[in-house]
UniProtKB/TrEMBL annotation:
Protein name, per record: Serine acetyltransferase
Entry-linked Gene3D superfamilies: Hexapeptide repeat proteins, serine acetyltransferase, domain 1
Gene name, Swiss-Prot/TrEMBL: cysE
Associated pathway: Amino-acid biosynthesis; L-cysteine biosynthesis; L-cysteine from L-serine: step 1/2
Lineage of the species this protein comes from: Bacteria, Pseudomonadati, Pseudomonadota, Alphaproteobacteria, Rhodobacterales
Domain Serine acetyltransferase N-terminal: 14-118
Stored Pfam families: Hexapep, SATase_N
The entry's keywords: Acyltransferase, Amino-acid biosynthesis, Repeat, Transferase
Family per record: Belongs to the transferase hexapeptide repeat family.
Record keyword rRNA-binding present: no
Signal peptide: none
Keyword Disulfide bond on entry: no
Assigned EC number: 2.3.1.30
């Protein structure tokens, strides 16, 4: 196992760093040794550790850890892009969240990261025609993390969901790459229509806490949505919107709002 980890570390710097952090964490707090060994060091790859972690979090009396682990292993073997996206999400959290000091933290402790990786598993099941299993994963993610993402939604990579409480993403929503959103964000519909009815979020968008984006509208790339806003109309690229209903109040303030995480309206 040690030789396999060494070999993989040469081509997977994210996994290498996680393993190094795991060893250091055990030295600093021996009481965490069992959790960290079972969650990280027992596995020969990032894919194995992620599959194990998700199976532990999503298991219930209705669906065992073993079955969920087999599903996750099959997904990661069939579609390596799932764990490439997970790596991008992890690095995004490390870069943008001042509370994240080590890569091991999202894997073991951050429900935003765990919820989005569980969504990715459910999305794979949905696209593979296993829709009842996908709905089961959606249900467990909602129950465990307070995050309700329909498995048919399309979400890019480099995603950070900070705090990840009361997040709702509807069936026909599309979220681009490098998007950051805070707690209590809703990407929802406006009625009972049964067609394309949810928002389309561009790349590099920052969505503040409690913001609601409703209907089949586009939010342009690298824009900002202020906390508590209700967005009912299209947002042009690189603008800041705020209010109920949201109106344009200025420019985005920088080229990549989702990376800087600047939520102040001054100088917009």
């Amino acid at each position: 196992m040690a030789q396999l980890q060494k070999t993989l570390a040469e081509v997977d710097p994210v996994w290498s760093r996680i393993c190094q952090e795991a060893e250091m964490a055990i030295q600093e707090e021996p009481l965490m040794g069992g959790l960290i060994h079972s969650g990280v060091l027992h596995h020969g790859s990032f894919e194995g550790a992620l599959a194990y972690r998700l199976s532990m979090k999503l298991a219930s009396s209705e669906m065992s850890e073993q079955i969920l682990r087999e599903i996750a292993d099959a997904a990661y073997a069939a579609e390596p892009n799932l764990t490439s996206a997970a790596r991008a999400d992890m690095v995004a959290i490390f870069d943008r969240d001042p509370a994240c000091h080590r890569l091991i933290q999202p894997l073991l402790f951050f429900k935003g990261f765990q919820a989005i990786q569980s969504y990715r598993l459910g999305n794979w099941l949905w696209r593979s025609g296993k829709r009842d299993l996908a709905y089961f994963v959606q249900m467990r993610v909602s129950e465990m993390f307070g995050v309700d993402i329909h498995p048919a939604a399309q979400i890019g990579q480099g995603i950070m969901i900070d705090h990840a409480h009361s997040i709702v993403v509807g069936e026909t929503a599309v979220v681009g790459d490098n998007v950051s959103m805070l707690h209590s964000v809703t990407l929802g519909g406006t009625g009972k229509e049964d067609d394309d009815r949810h928002p389309k979020i561009g790349n590099g968008v920052l969505i503040g806490a409690g913001a609601k984006v409703l209907g089949n509208i586009r939010v342009g790339h690298c824009s900002r949505i202020a906390a508590g806003s209700v967005v009912l109309e299209e947002v042009p690229p690189m603008k800041t919107v705020a209010g109920v209903p949201a109106k344009i109040v200025g420019e985005a303030g920088c080229s990549q709002p989702s990376l800087t995480m600047d939520q102040l309206l001054n100088g917009s």
